[in-house]
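chain below, 138 aa
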Amino acid sequence: NKFMNTATKEKKDLLDLASDFSGFVKSHNWIPRYDIESDSLSVTTPELSGDARIKYIGDEMAFYVTKNNKIEGVFIEYFRSNFIEHHQELKNVLKDIKRAKKGQGLVILSELKLDEIASDLEEAIKLSLAERINLNFK
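prediction:
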């Protein structure tokens, strides 16, 4: 809609991301990466804007957000060491990560792997957002 203002579009993007993470990621060409050194998983635009900053929406989950409030990615810290413990359904992704060699630094996960974990990540995003606004949907 050409009449949609920027603030409305940002809110719509957030709702689209939270309600159809897989579709959102595909339509925005986001790429899943795991950083071995920092034990973090990110799903982001191919190249983050220079002004993109991390804004936490939960204890270990955050969005990459630009100065004009455009969401450019999702970031999860302590992915192997903590996040997976609370989200057992994401254990599959560890196979790709374990194959990565120490010192490799960044592991780009396959699109197939992203499809496998997209609904679980979507659920984690919804829970983090719900906790952030003090709603308890389960």
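DSSP finds five helices and six strands in the chain. The mean pLDDT is 80.
thats it, cya
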